[in-house]
Specification:
2 copies of one chain form a homodimer. Chain A has 152 residues and is mainly alpha-helical. Chain A folds into 2 domains: 36 residues; 111 residues, Winged helix-like DNA-binding domain superfamily/Winged helix DNA-binding domain (Arc Repressor Mutant, subunit A, Orthogonal Bundle), CATH 1.10.10.10. Chain A is built from 6 helices and 3 strands; from the N terminus they run H-H-E-H-H-E-E-H-H. A 3-stranded antiparallel β-sheet of chain A has the order 1-3-2. The first copy, chain A, is elongated. The first copy, chain A, starts with 15 loop residues before the first helix and ends with a helix. The N terminus of chain A is likely disordered. At the A-B interface, helix 1, helix 5 and helix 6 of A face helix 1, helix 5 and helix 6 of B. The first copy, chain A, binds a DNA duplex (23 and 23 nucleotides) through helix 4.
DNA sequence: TATTGTTATACTCTATAACTATA
DNA sequence: TATAGTTATAGAGTATAACAATA
């Protein structure tokens, strides 16, 4: 097994148990750093998270959105009300079952979310440019594995 | 530049901009997954985070701890009071300047923190065992780069 | 009668401002 | 007079329980 240059810290992660520990700390720290690059802080993390879920699903009932965000329905009512007042989401009654409330992103909401994403990507891009090609290659190969772990 | 097996998703991240985007999503998701493996939820994330900071620094003044945790002093007073009631930390007056309050982990606090860490590592270890040797090697090489990004 | 979402109420956590003690 | 920490008070945000509308 050969190591590329700059592996002094990685060699400490020789055993699998050590790899788990090192990887966990690195991922948590980087996540924290990325989170701090939030847009303007006028929106809470929960509000942004709910919008992110909506971005992937089109129309979702308020209850399903609450479940997806691991929040109780009354809390989601409040979150959606706030986002609706800002024009970032829209409530619409379900035509088939009028007890249901469908929520979806407005164009303004989608744009704000995209701007947020671009901003975080911009920071990460700047950092990536400072790395060596080998280091970037290491990240490229690991990205798909990290995704796999996150889904499991 | 050669690619190892199982790179179908990674090839999507050909350009650096795409790498940033893919990496950000993967890291945030995995961090969220790791966070959900918290011990018993009797402690909040802020309390655990404060304890983690203490673990690395021995004795710290309450003000420095508040600054490190990006929290105001009154909030840290409350957090420390709560942790002290549980026997996880101890307040001690600074012998030199009696205005200062030094905080440090008790043995029980250190043990609880370690148990927490072990639990998260255990989950990640189980997942790592399911990966191929190539995938683990990719993570091993990337871990040090992720750490570097997190510190920047 | 069951289900979806909302309103009412209480609790937790945080912050700012005022206060106490030490320097 | 300045500084470290605590106490007092108010403002978000969340949850459970009670309620209204619809099925």
């Amino acid at each position: 097994m050969t190591y590329a240059k700059g592996m002094t810290a990685a060699t400490k992660a020789r055993s699998q148990a050590e790899l788990a520990s090192v990887l966990r700390v690195a991922v948590m720290r980087l996540a924290r750093r990325l989170r701090s690059e939030r847009e303007d802080d006028s929106l809470t993390l929960n509000q942004l998270s709910a919008m992110g879920t909506l971005a992937g699903h089109g129309q979702v009932t308020l209850g399903d959105l609450a479940a997806a965000e691991m929040v109780q329905p009354p809390s989601m009512t409040r979150i959606v009300t706030n986002l609706e007042e800002r024009g970032l989401v829209i409530r619409e009654p379900d035509p088939g079952d009028r007890r249901l409330v469908l929520v979806r992103l407005t164009d303004a909401g989608a744009e704000l979310l995209a701007a947020n994403r671009r901003r975080r990507d911009a920071w990460l891009n700047r950092q990536l440019r400072e790395l060596t090609p080998d280091e970037r290659e290491a990240l490229r190969r690991a990205a798909v594995v990290l995704e796999k772990l996150a889904r499991s």
